[in-house]
Structure formats: C-alpha cells, structure tokens
Amino acid sequence: MDAAAAISRPERSIEILIALAAPDMAAVDALIRDRMQSPVAVIPALAEHLIGGSAKRLRPLLTVAAARLCGAEDDACLKLATAVEFIHTATLLHDDGVDSSELRRGKVAAHLIWGAPAAVLVGDFLFSRAFELMVEAGSMEALEVLARASRVISEGEVLQLTSAHDLNLTQDTYLDIIRAKTAELFAAAAEAGAISAGASPEQRTAMRAYGTSLGLAFQLVDDALDYSGTSEALGKNPGDDFREGKATLPLLLAIQRSGARETAFWERTVSKLQKVDDDFRRARELVASTGAGEATLQLADEYAAQAQAELEGFASNSWRPALNDLAAFAVSRSA
Prior knowledge:
The protein has a two-stranded antiparallel sheet with strand order 1-2. With 335 residues, it is mainly α. Helix 5 (58-69) runs antiparallel to helix 6 (77-99) and helix 10 crosses helix 11 (201-228). It has a single domain, classed as Farnesyl Diphosphate Synthase, CATH 1.10.600.10. The longest helix is centred in the middle third of the chain and has 28 residues, at 201-228. The two termini are 20 Å apart. The model is unreliable at 1-12 (pLDDT under 50). The chain contains 18 helices and two strands. The protein has helices at residues 3-7, 15-20, 22-35, 42-51, 58-69, 77-99, 110-114, 116-137, 140-163, 171-196, 201-228, 231-234, 240-244, 249-256, 260-271, 279-289, 292-309, 319-332; strands at residues 103-104, 107-108. A hairpin with a 2-residue loop joins strand 1 and strand 2 (107-108).
C-alpha cells in the first residue's frame, strides 16, 4: 500500500504498534515510575499527575519501535525510551507555566495545583533523571543525540516566545519553530532507538528523517485542531494558541487570505491581545472559511507521507507496517 492510500484511511490506528511494543512499554513504564521517585514528596506526586494516566507515550514508543525495526533483540533501548519521556514531560511542565495553560492531557495543569515554581523545578528534576538514564545506557552517540535535542527544543520554545503576536511571521520561520520544539524530539527518539540497535549510518539517517517528518505532521495537526478540535481530542482547551497570541500556521494562512476588516480583527486579538468573549468563535469561522485549517492539514498529510517513504529501505518485518500506521495515526486525529 502506498503512503497516500494509508493516510487516506483515518480508521487506521496504532493498535498494532502498541500491541507489538506492549512488553517493552511495560518495562518503560516500570522504569518511569521507579525513576520519578524522590524523598521530596511533591516530586513524585506532581510527576505522577502528568506522566500517569492515559498518555500514549508516542515518543518512547518511537524509540522502542525504531530499535526493533533495526533488529534489536536486547533491552538497550529501554533506558533511552524512558529518558525521552522524561525530556518530553519536563518540556510540558515548563511550557504550561510559560503559557499559563489550564489543561494538559485532559487534567488541570500542574502549575495550577502545585504552583509554577514547583512545576518548573520538577521539570528540572525530570531533565536530570533523563540525563542519568542516558549515561546509564552507555552510548555516547545516543547521549549526544538526546542532549542536542534538549538544546534545540529550548531554542525552539524561545523562538516561538519571541515570535508571538507577529502577524508577519513567515511559513518558513513557523516551520523552523515546530521543527525545533516538536519534531526534534521525535527525530532524536527515533535515531536513539536506531543507535541502540547498532543500526547502520543509513538506517540512522532514515529513522531520524522519519521522526522529523512525523513530528512536523503531528504538530501541524495539533495546531489545526486548536481551531477545530475539542478538549477531548487535544487534551487541552481548544483556542489556547489563539488566546496566547501564538502565530501558528492556521492563523498565518487565515490572515494572508483575509480582507482589511478581518486584518483589523487579527491585529486587535493577536497583536494587541485585546479579546472579548466571542472572538474565538469568529477566529474559528475565519480559519474554516479561508481554508486555512484544511491547508494546514494538507501539509501535515505531506509530511506524514514523507515519514512513510523513509521506511521503504528497511526489511519488511512486523514493525515496518506498524510504524507506517503511526504516521497515518498522526494525521487521522483530525478526521
């Protein structure tokens, strides 16, 4: 089946991948719960609030799947997968404090329960745990990949912060932001898994490219759903990006395709952050009527297809079609 056909079937899911990886992910979950413990009671309580529950753990799942696709038969990938989840969770804790988000993964954001200082410091604790696990994994190459990802993610978040409210942000700069703040960890997760399996340089490159394209598709869908989705689909409140004045692609395309009257609306609500209760409803209507949301999802489809194309050089074992479906899942969330 070609990439386009797979992507056009939104009923496809990651159930096969989850089943294949179930033993590995059970071990990762055990490591997560062991390594988030601390004699300081607020640390495991706050970490459990965010890490526990129904999170799909896509990034550590990607590390495990990449390792198995590349022929790994041992458990070398498990500590790296756990480190990936800790890096991701730490960035969420930091981001929610910066953005003043109210929901995360369908729960009240941690900073609203324990306070922003505690949330940030627990994020720092999880970063530290991640680096301990990387060292224990014993691979300098994997440590380099994940350490670089931690830096790049921070750079992406700062770039997004300094680009907020900018109605003239280019699509290229927007893609640079999401490539850094989201796709980089997907790329590093996949590459680290390949490294743990002793993959060839060509396989490492392909897995990194797969992760990058997958992460871009995933973030584009998230950004589109902020204007068309529900709290259940997003795990956070729709409209958060709009309320925070984030210049995401649906917003940028809607502005480009709007008339003078609508431009004044965007300047008031996004540039000046002067909003009234009905503004998000109008913003959603403009994103829909200009086709900006649909164009964003189309670009996500293209990146998902690119991710699937990167798998063509791998042996046809059970993990390859499962990773193919993971790319399809990234975009099917919008269906």
